Q: What sequence folds into this?
C-alpha cells in the first residue's frame, strides 16, 4: 500500500504531501534518508531506494525530478509490495503539479483538489477545476488547461489501475481496511481519498456518506473505462514519443500542432524548431564545436572576444545559416535542455575522464548521473552547452571527492584520554606501498608527539619484517614482531596488548599484501579485523590503478564484511561503542563499509592521470585520507580536491 | 632630443601626466573601496539537520509550512528585517547553504561576499555534531575574506523549544570553542591548508577564545520551528 506521496524543492522545502497510512516515524525521515543516501551521492542510476526505519518494515522509495523547476517528487510504499503503478503515478502527479507550481509559493492545498480531479469523477471535476482556477488566479486560461490536462491524467490513473488490478488483487483484499468498499486497486483508492479530502475542504460538494462516494465511484468506473482506454492510448504514447518527436522537429518535418499533450516538451520543440531551420544535425555539431572554441577563448580570459570567436568558427566552414542559429541559441539561451542536447558533451566528458584514468564503470555512472541532473535545466544566456556541462561536472566531482575525513589526530587524542591505543590497520593488494606509507604515517604521527608502535603482521612475504625493522630503527619507534609463519590476527592482538602496557598512543598494523580474489587470505584479513576491532581500517591503493580500482575496493569491502566470523560481526554491528570513538563509528556506519579511509600512493608518478582517486572514493564511499607522493618520510600529503578536479577536467 | 624640463613644460605633456596620475589615484581609491566592501548576503551555515532551511523560511516568509527535508541546493531569498519597534528597517539577502558534507565545497565561494554568517547548530544534539559544527566555523573564520573584513558571526543555538533536551547557549559556545581549539592544533599539524588564514584564530600558543577573535562572535538561543528568532532578527538589524 502506498504510504505517502510528496513534492519538495531541491532547496529542501516540502511543498505538498499526501499521506495514506499512519506511520510510526515521521514521513520526512524516509525522504531525508533518500536524499542523503542516494540523491546526494550521485547515484541516480538506481531507481528504487530502500529505507529501513527504526521500527517497522522497510520502505521503498521511488522518485522523479523536474529539473527545470528544481522539484523532486517521491512516492513511498512498503517494500514487500511491488506496486506497478508508482512510476506512472509519479509522472502524472508531476505533470499536474507543474501546472499549479509557482516559485516562492509554499502551500499547495488546492493541489489536493486538483489531485481529486485526477480520480476522474466528472461531476467533481468541474468543481475542482473552478477551485483550481480560483486558486491560481486566471480563471479562463487555467480552466482550459485544467480541462485539457484532466482527462489525460485520468487516463494515466485509470490505465494503471487496470494494469495493476490484476496483479494485486490478492494483497489488496488482504490489506483492505474494510471501511472503504472499493474493488478497484489501491491507486484509485488513494486518489479517491484525496478527492474526498478535497471535497470536504471547499464544502461545495455534498458531504455524503462513504457509501455514497463508493457507489458513485462504481457508477463512474463503467463509463470511465472507455474514456480511460482512449486516453491511456493517447497519453503514454504522447510521453514515449516526446524525445523522438523532438527529433522530428529537428529534422524539420515534425508538425508542431501534433504535440498537444505534454506542453513543456512541446514548447521546447517549438523553441528549438524555429531557429534551426537548416539541418538540425549540422547545428548540433556546429553548436558544440563552437562552444568548445568559446570555452578556450574564455579560459584565455578573453570574454569579450566571444563574439569574434563565434564569427570565426563557422565562417571557416562556410555555413552562415547554422552560425546564425547557433548564435541565436547561445545568445538568447535555450529554453530547456534535453538529453540529446547534452549527449555529445557528456560523451566528451566521459572520454576525458577515462583518459585521466577513471575506471570506465565509474565514468559511465558519473556521466549518467550528471546527465540526469541536467535534463530540463535552463541554459543561461551566453553559455554554451559544453561549458554548462563542465560546470555541472565540476560540482559533481568535487561533491564526490569532498568527504569528511576522520581527523586522525583528534581521534588519537580521544583514545589517549581513555588510555587505549588507537589501532590503524593497513590493507591492500601486493606492492602498492603499504609498508612505505605506514612508515611515513608513523613519522608524521611521531612528529606530533604521538608514541607510535608498529606491529609486523605481514608474516608471509620474505623480508617484510626486516623492512619494518629498518624503518623502526630509523624512526626510533618500537616494533612488535613474532617472526614469520604466525597467525597475523594473533600477532596484532598481542601487539595491541603490549602497546597498552607500554602506554603507546597508536598501533600501526602492517598486513601482507593480497589479491582481492584470494579468498583464504581475505578471510585471514577479515579475521584480523574482526578479532582486533581496529579504530581505523585504511585501504592502500596506488594511483596508477585503472579499471581494477573498482574491483579491488568492492571486493575488499565485501570480503571484509562477509567473511568475518559471525560472532565478531554481531559485536561490530551491535554497539557503536565497539568501534573506537563514537565519531569514527558514525563515520564507518555512514558509508556502510569496513574500509574507513584510503591512502593513495605513488601520486607523484601519474602526472595528470588522477582518476584513481575518483574511482576509489566513488566505489567505497570512503575519503582519501593520505596521499603518498614520494620516497622519503616527509612525502605525505592531504588530497587537494580542487586540483584533482581541475586536472580531471583539464 | 629635448631636455626633460623642457618637455615637462609643454602643456600636452603636463595634461598627460595629470591624466595618468588621476587614473592611478582613482584605481587605488577603487581598490581600497572594494577591499572594504561589505558582502551582499547573510549566510546560514551549519551541520545537517540543524534547522537552517527552517530558519531561512522563518525569516523570509514568517512561516515554515509543511516542514523541510535535507537541502540539495542553496536557498536564496530576501528577508524583511524589522527593528525593535516592529517597523520594517530594510531587507537583506539571505543564503541558506546545504549542510551535507558533499555540498560543503560550495561554502568557499559564497564566503567571499558574505556580509554576516549565522552558524546554526542543534542545541539538543550538540555533542555528536560538535566536530561538524566546529569544522564549519573553522572554515568560516579562516577564510581570508572573512578574516580581512571582520565579518560578524552569530552562533544560533536552534531547537531551544526542546526545553529539557536543549543545552544552554553557554554550553554550546564552550563546546564549539573547545573543539575549535583542538581542531586548530590538528589542522596546523596536517599542513595542507594552504591559503587559510590560521592567524585569524589567534595566537597558536594560547588557548583559543571566541571572544578575542577578529570577527565579532555573538551567540543566541532560538527556535526556528516555533518562531522565536528575535535574536537573529536583531543581529540582522545591526547589519543595516
A:
Amino acid at each position: 500500500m502506498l504510504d505517502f506521496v510528496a513534492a519538495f524543492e531541491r532547496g529542501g522545502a516540502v511543498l505538498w504531501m499526501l499521506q495514506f497510512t499512519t506511520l510510526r516515524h515521521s514521513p520526512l525521515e524516509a525522504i531525508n534518508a533518500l536524499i542523503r543516501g542516494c540523491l546526494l551521492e550521485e547515484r541516480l542510476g538506481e531507481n528504487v531506494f530502500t529505507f529501513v526505519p527504526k521500527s517497522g518494515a522497510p520502505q521503498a522509495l521511488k522518485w522523479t525530478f523536474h529539473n527545470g523547476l528544481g522539484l523532486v517528487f517521491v512516492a513511498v510504499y512498503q517494500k514487500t509490495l511491488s506496486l506497478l503503478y508508482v512510476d506512472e503515478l509519479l509522472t502524472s502527479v508531476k505533470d499536474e503539479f507543474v501546472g499549479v507550481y509557482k516559485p516562492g509559493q509554499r502551500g499547495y492545498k488546492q493541489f489536493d483538489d486538483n489531485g481529486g480531479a485526477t480520480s476522474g469523477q466528472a461531476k467533481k471535476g468541474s468543481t475542482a477545476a473552478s477551485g483550481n482556477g480560483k486558486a491560481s488566479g486566471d480563471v479562463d486560461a487555467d480552466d482550459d488547461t485544467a480541462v485539457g490536462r484532466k482527462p489525460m491524467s485520468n487516463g494515466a490513473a485509470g490505465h494503471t489501475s487496470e494494469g495493476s488490478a490484476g496483479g494485486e488483487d490478492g494483497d489488496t483484499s488482504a490489506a483492505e481496511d474494510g471501511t472503504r468498499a472499493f474493488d478497484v486497486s489501491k491507486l484509485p483508492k488513494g486518489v479517491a481519498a484525496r478527492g474526498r479530502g478535497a471535497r470536504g475542504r471547499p464544502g461545495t460538494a455534498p458531504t455524503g456518506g462513504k457509501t455514497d462516494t463508493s457507489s458513485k465511484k462504481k457508477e463512474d468506473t463503467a463509463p470511465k473505462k472507455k474514456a480511460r482506454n482512449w486516453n491511456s492510448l493517447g497519453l503514454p504514447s504522447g510521453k514515449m514519443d516526446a524525445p523522438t518527436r523532438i527529433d522530428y522537429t529537428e529534422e524539420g518535418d515534425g508538425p508542431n500542432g501534433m504535440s498537444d499533450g505534454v506542453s513543456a516538451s512541446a514548447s521546447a520543440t517549438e523553441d528549438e524548431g524555429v531557429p534551426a531551420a537548416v539541418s538540425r544535425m549540422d547545428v548540433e555539431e556546429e553548436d558544440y564545436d563552437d562552444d568548445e572554441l568559446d570555452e578556450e577563448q574564455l579560459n584565455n580570459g578573453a570574454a569579450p572576444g566571444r563574439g569574434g570567436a563565434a564569427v570565426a568558427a563557422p565562417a571557416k566552414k562556410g555555413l552562415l545559416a547554422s552560425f546564425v542559429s547557433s548564435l541565436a541559441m547561445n545568445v538568447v539561451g535555450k529554453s530547456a535542455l534535453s538529453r540529446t542536447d547534452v549527449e555529445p558533451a557528456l560523451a566528451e566528458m566521459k572520454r576525458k575522464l577515462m583518459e585521466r584514468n577513471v575506471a570506465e564503470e565509474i565514468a559511465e555512472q558519473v556521466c549518467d548521473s550528471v546527465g540526469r541532473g541536467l535534463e530540463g535545466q535552463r541554459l543561461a544566456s551566453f553559455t554554451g552547452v559544453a561549458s554548462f556541462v563542465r560546470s555541472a561536472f565540476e560540482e559533481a566531482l568535487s561533491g564526490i571527492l569532498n568527504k569528511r575525513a576522520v581527523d586522525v589526530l583528534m581521534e588519537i587524542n580521544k583514545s589517549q584520554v581513555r588510555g587505549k591505543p588507537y589501532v590503524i590497520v593497513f590493507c591492500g593488494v601486493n606492492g602498492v606501498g603499504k609498508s612505505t606509507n605506514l612508515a611515513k604515517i608513523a613519522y608524521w604521527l611521531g612528529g606530533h608527539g604521538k608514541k607510535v608502535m608498529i606491529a609486523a603482521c605481514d608474516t608471509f612475504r620474505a623480508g617484510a619484517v626486516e623492512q619494518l625493522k629498518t624503518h623502526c630503527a630509523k624512526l626510533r619507534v618500537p616494533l612488535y614482531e613474532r617472526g614469520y609463519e604466525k597467525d597475523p590476527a594473533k600477532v596484532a592482538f598481542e601487539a595491541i596488548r603490549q602497546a597498552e602496557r607500554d602506554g603507546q598512543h597508536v598501533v600501526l598494523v602492517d598486513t601482507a599484501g593480497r589479491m582481492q580474489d584470494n579468498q583464504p587470505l581475505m578471510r585471514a584479513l577479515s579475521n584480523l579485523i574482526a578479532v582486533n576491532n581496529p579504530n581505523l581500517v585504511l585501504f592502500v591503493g596506488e594511483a596508477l590503478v585503472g579499471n581494477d580500482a573498482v574491483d579491488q575496493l568492492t571486493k575488499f569491502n565485501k570480503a571484509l564484511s562477509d567473511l568475518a566470523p559471525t560472532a565478531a560481526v554481531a559485536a561490530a554491528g551491535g554497539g557503536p561503542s565497539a568501534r573506537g570513538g563514537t565519531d569514527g563509528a558514525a563515520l564507518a556506519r555512514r558509508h556502510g563499509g569496513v574500509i574507513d579511509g584510503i591512502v593513495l600512493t605513488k601520486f607523484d608518478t601519474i602526472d595528470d592521470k588522477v582518476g584513481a582517486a575518483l574511482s576509489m572514493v566513488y566505489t567505497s564511499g570512503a575519503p582519501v585520507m593520505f596521499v603518498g607522493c614520494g620516497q622519503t618520510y616527509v612525502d605525505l600529503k592531504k588530497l587537494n580536491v580542487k586540483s584533482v578536479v581541475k586536472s580531471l577536467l583539464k | 632630443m629635448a631636455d626633460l624640463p623642457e618637455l615637462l613644460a609643454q602643456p600636452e605633456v603636463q595634461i598627460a601626466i595629470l591624466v595618468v596620475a588621476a587614473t592611478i589615484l582613482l584605481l587605488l581609491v577603487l581598490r581600497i573601496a572594494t577591499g572594504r566592501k561589505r558582502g551582499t548576503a547573510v549566510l546560514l551555515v551549519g551541520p545537517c539537520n540543524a534547522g537552517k532551511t527552517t530558519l531561512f523560511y522563518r525569516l523570509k516568509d514568517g512561516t515554515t509550512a509543511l516542514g523541510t527535508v535535507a537541502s540539495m541546493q542553496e536557498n536564496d531569498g530576501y528577508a524583511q528585517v524589522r527593528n525593535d519597534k516592529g517597523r520594517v528597517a530594510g531587507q537583506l539577502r539571505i543564503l541558506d547553504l546545504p549542510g551535507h558534507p558533499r555540498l560543503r565545497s560550495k561554502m568557499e565561494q559564497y564566503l567571499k561576499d558574505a556580509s554576516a554568517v549565522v552558524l546554526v547548530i542543534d542545541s539538543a544534539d550538540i555533542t555528536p555534531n560538535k566536530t561538524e559544527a566546529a569544522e564549519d566555523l573553522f572554515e568560516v573564520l579562516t577564510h581570508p575574506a572573512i578574516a580581512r573584513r571582520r565579518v560578524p558571526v552569530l552562533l544560533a543555538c536552534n531547537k531551544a523549544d526542546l526545553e529539557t533536551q536543549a543545552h544552554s547557549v553557554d554550553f554550546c559556545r564552550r563546546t564549539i570553542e573547545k573543539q575549535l581549539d583542538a581542531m586548530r592544533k590538528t589542522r596546523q599539524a596536517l599542513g595542507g591548508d594552504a591559503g587559510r588564514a590560521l592567524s585569524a584564530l589567534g595566537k597558536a600558543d594560547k588557548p583559543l577564545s571566541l571572544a578575542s577573535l577578529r570577527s565579532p562572535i555573538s551567540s543566541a538561543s532560538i527556535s526556528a520551528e516555533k518562531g522565536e528568532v528575535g535574536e537573529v532578527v536583531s543581529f540582522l538589524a545591526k547589519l543595516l
Q: What stands out?
A: Confidence is low (pLDDT under 50) at residues 116-316, 566-592 of chain A.
